[in-house]
Specification:
37% helix, alpha/beta, 15 strands, three-stranded parallel sheet, globular, 11% strand, four-stranded parallel sheet, 20 helices
Length: 541
């Protein structure tokens, strides 16, 4: 079952967070100490030795390999491309070419495989283990359609050249002695975008990848990582820009505490942010939009309607079911609505979405629908920034957190699977209490695909369907810090503190006509194309 590593603190977790911390620390020092080019290069190039000191390997067979892998992670954390090992290069090479005013500052792809970190795991291979009893019935041999199983020294043996990976032997063995090897990253990928290169290492098909990030958090060797925007955010702060954070509903409990907005505001202030806003506010606006669309279009114009807020789900549905792409709501996402709302009052600010999601990095880069988001950080990347500034989140003053008392309970539960559909249903029933709204939701792209197939076949006539790429919802995103169930519970408890139950009660709903301009159903193909264009390297286009 993919996703079992979520919330477990491992050696890989430590390395990721060490890298985010140290890169953040240098980026802050660039501004605070006015480091010159030579000092910047030296600081970054020395990092692998500071993160992994000594001459004895800790995790792998060689300390040199460990440092090479950490070096690649450092480049990705800087927003740079992988440098590879085919020729000598400094970690800092190209760093001065990444400018904060260039919103397309990094080259695709977003999700990267560090090839020499990959274990070349077996993928979709059936092998007999030592628990085989050599039983008299030999059901595995008898059921094999290709006669690929024989018995050697009274133990079953599978001829891999003849095996067609049907799994019938696996299912019939009474001792469960046959093991199905599945590459963890591929098993977690709902887009079936991960295969093998000529050396058996993981290889991503970027024409399929929607950057959900589940492969990253499920690779036990830490061979997959995405590019970060930490450096660009800190540079904007160093340059005196007005930088405002828009924090996703899944923030509750990620940094400790129980939804202490006062602590959150103080932490962001210490990091150099000019302000913090709650994306659950945009979730309320998205809810009202989707409720209106549902009432207007289902079932007279559309057989069903899918939610819009998860970019990985919506792009998958539109790409794989093009004839039904218009059934996915065209409502702007909570991230975009919140950013646009902030922009009405802070036209020159740099807006940073802080949340659990890797796919939001691609959504923010689309040109067809301007999100107004300049940068995207995950909770894990933000935690690295806090560590760099020695911020002890739980020791901060709570302060006054009433400024977050604008979003509804329904908007705040967008972070949990089923929350979006529930919010939209409640909004519809507020104005149309007599209307029965049927909903169905799916978690994980494999299940989302099955749900969409069933909907297309007519299984869900007139339904509102909710898709979430991450099992459990946004609280299970690739950039989260805590266990999914713990996070979901924290979000639900925090939602109960809201002064409003329904999204329709949000006073900012009057801004919707002003904010929703710039995106129509005619833009669907462009939206999908841009998402994949931002992933596919030039060499593969």
């Amino acid at each position: 079952m993919p996703g079992t590593m979520r919330g477990v603190y491992t050696n890989l977790t430590k390395i990721r967070r060490d890298v985010f911390r140290e890169v953040s620390k240098i980026c802050y020092e660039i501004g605070e100490k006015n480091l010159d080019r030579k000092q910047i290069d030296e600081a970054f190039n020395n990092l692998p030795y500071e993160i992994l000191p000594g001459d004895v390997a800790t995790y792998r067979e060689s300390v040199f390999l460990e440092r090479a892998i950490v070096g690649e992670r450092i480049r990705l954390a800087m927003g740079q491309s992988l440098q590879g090992v085919d020729k000598p290069r400094a970690i800092s090479e190209g760093f001065n070419e990444v400018e904060i005013d260039n919103t397309s500052y990094y080259e695709p792809p977003l999700i990267n495989v560090i090839k020499f970190a990959c274990n070349a795991c077996k993928d979709n291979v059936y092998e007999v283990t030592n628990t085989c009893q050599g039983c008299l019935a030999h059901p595995c041999r008898e059921i094999c359609p290709k006669k690929a199983i024989s018995f050697v020294n009274k133990k079953a043996f599978i001829d891999q050249d003849a095996c067609i990976h049907c799994g019938q032997c696996f299912n019939v063995c009474p001792y469960h002695a046959i093991h199905h090897h599945v590459r963890p990253c591929a098993d977690a990928c709902g887009m079936k975008a991960i295969g093998s290169d000529e050396y058996g290492r993981a290889d991503i098909d970027y024409n399929k990848c929607v950057s959900c990030g589940q492969c990253m958090v499920n690779c036990p060797f830490g061979a997959i990582a995405d590019k970060s925007q930490i450096a660009q955010v800190i540079w904007a702060i160093n340059h005196g820009e007005e930088v405002i954070a828009a924090v996703a509903p899944a923030f509750v409990g990620q940094f400790g505490g129980k939804g202490n907005v006062g602590k959150l505001r103080e932490a962001f202030r210490l990091l150099g942010f000019a302000g913090v806003e709650e994306v659950a506010l945009g979730a309320d606006l998205c809810t009202v939009q989707e409720a209106g669309d549902f009432l207007e279009e289902v079932p007279d114009k559309l057989p069903f309607m899918g939610t819009s807020c998860c970019p990985a789900w919506s792009v998958m549905a539109k790409k794989e079911f093009p004839d039904h792409a218009n059934t996915i709501s065209m409502a702007l996402t909570p991230m975009t609505l919140t950013a646009r709302l902030i922009r009405t009052q802070h036209p020159n600010a740099k807006i940073v979405f802080v949340g659990p999601c890797a796919a939001k990095k691609l959504e923010a880069m689309r040109k067809s629908v301007r999100s107004e988001v300049d940068f995207v950080l995950t909770f894990e990347e933000m935690a690295g920034m806090m560590d760099a500034k020695d911020i002890d989140y739980l020791s901060l003053e709570d302060g006054e957190d009433s400024d977050f008392d604008v979003a509804s309970a329904d908007g705040r539960t967008f972070a949990v699977a089923g929350g979006v559909a529930n919010a939209v249903k409640n909004a519809i029933n507020k104005t149309h209490p007599e209307l029965e709204v049927n909903v169905v939701n799916a978690e994980g792209l494999d299940n989302c695909r099955k749900m969409m197939k069933d909907a297309v076949k007519g299984k869900y006539p007139g339904y509102l369907i909710e898709g979430m790429a991450c099992p459990g919802g946004c609280v299970a995103g690739a950039g989260t810090l805590v266990n999914t169930k713990k996070s979901a519970g924290a979000v639900k408890r925090y939602a109960k503190r809201s002064p409003h139950k329904l999204a329709t009660e949000n006073a900012y709903n009057s801004y919707i006509p002003q904010l929703e301009k710039g995106f129509t159903k005619d833009d669907v193909d462009t939206e999908v194309a841009e998402t994949f264009e931002a992933q596919v390297p030039e060499s593969q286009k």
